Q: What sequence folds into this?
């Protein structure tokens, strides 16, 4: 499936439980949200580009 969604990172932080967390600012798609993961292409401001698996989750994370 071909998809294209451009996201600008609004904030990011490192979590010792799950790793790097980036917070984009984008509108949620219509209908109920379902968490998913997919391979994304990351393009840094310096032009460096790489692929990585990303998880798209809605809501807050809670750890014991």
A:
């Amino acid at each position: 499936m071909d998809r294209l969604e451009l996201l600008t990172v609004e904030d990011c932080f490192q979590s010792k439980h799950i790793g790097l967390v980036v917070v984009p600012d984008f509108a949620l798609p219509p209908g109920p949200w379902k968490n998913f993961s997919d391979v994304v292409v990351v393009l840094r401001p310096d032009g460096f580009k790489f692929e990585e698996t990303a998880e798209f989750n809605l809501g807050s994370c809670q750890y014991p």
